[in-house]
């Protein structure tokens, strides 16, 4: 059987997050409130607090995820003063030198990446850089008050790809003010053309305390529905999957810090957003499979990898119930087969694969 790219969104390092909310930010982007997202107000935690946070998270590490990266999130890392960048890197480096972690990662804005700022990282065990792209459309970037251009992102990606060996992650958002379905697809295509090692896709949410919350109250901003966000993210996932670019996160997840009921005022939030997207992909693939099969027997067996099972079933078995009704199937037996790729199922001895069409 032909082997298709194996897109496994769950294979990622053990990340030890150190939050530095809004540290290094030149201003506040309209959608952002890192104090809410990270549950932390202090942009500059003390050295002792950072070390304690790292030690606490390291105690949660499981043997199945041995690659460990200490991560500075929630701010604009390379927008910090050089001495602060070096201070944070030196704290994290100690854990790498002691063998308790394998590398350092951080997120930063595209317009902070230059040969000069990258030179500050020399000698530190940085392994991954995540860049907040958000959109590859200057009009949308203006609406969102990002304060950088698409050209900054293109230059940043080129510099990171050509002058460093860091793994490159690019983050994009959907449902931004002024964005459209087609603009977002174009953003996805342009991000894929940058050949990052991985991407994250975040639907825009109306967070308490953000400027977007005011716009939402005034009727200036209307968020995507959950259905539209899942549909668009599905198409974007296909763009990246076709290029074998891993999508490591789709949607903001509830954490101990983020309380969706209190902090998310509106927008397509779902605690298992990524699973909804993958279930929608499977629903299309399974429907197409049975349509092409013609006659469908009363009892159907589906073999799949254990990690694909819930996605094939859909939320509360919605996919299976839909298939049963649509193709008059009496019973569907689900059989775990971890020898299969996660994007391939065997339906009554016939392969059914995610094709990533959009
Ligand atoms: S999106 Fe990034 S740059 Fe903008 S305010 Fe939030 S953390 Fe700062």
Q: Residue share in helices? A: 25-40%
Mean pLDDT reading: 92
| Number of beta-strand segments | 13
Shape: globular
| Helix-strand category | alpha/beta
Q: Kindly report the spatial arrangement of strands forming the biggest sheet.
A: 1-2-3-4-5-6-8
Order of helices and strands: EHHEHEHEHHEHEEHHEHEHEHHEEE
Brief digest:
The protein is of the alpha/beta class. It has helices at 34-38, 47-58, 82-97, 115-119, 138-143, 150-163, 181-193, 211-217, 226-242, 260-263, 273-293, 309-313, 318-327; strands at 14-19, 68-73, 103-108, 126-134, 167-174, 198-203, 206-207, 246-250, 264-266, 299-304, 331-336, 344-347, 350-353.
Please provide a written account of the structure.
It is globular, with a radius of gyration of 22 Å. The model is unreliable at 1-11 (pLDDT under 50). With 358 residues, the chain is α/β, with parallel strands linked by helices. It has helices at residues 34-38, 47-58, 82-97, 115-119, 138-143, 150-163, 181-193, 211-217, 226-242, 260-263, 273-293, 309-313, 318-327, and strands at residues 14-19, 68-73, 103-108, 126-134, 167-174, 198-203, 206-207, 246-250, 264-266, 299-304, 331-336, 344-347, 350-353. The protein contains 13 helices and 13 strands. The strands form 3 sheets. It has a 7-stranded parallel β-sheet. The protein has a 4-stranded mixed β-sheet with strand order 11-10-12-13, with helices on one face. Helix 9 (226-242) packs across helix 11 (273-293). Bound molecules: iron/sulfur cluster.
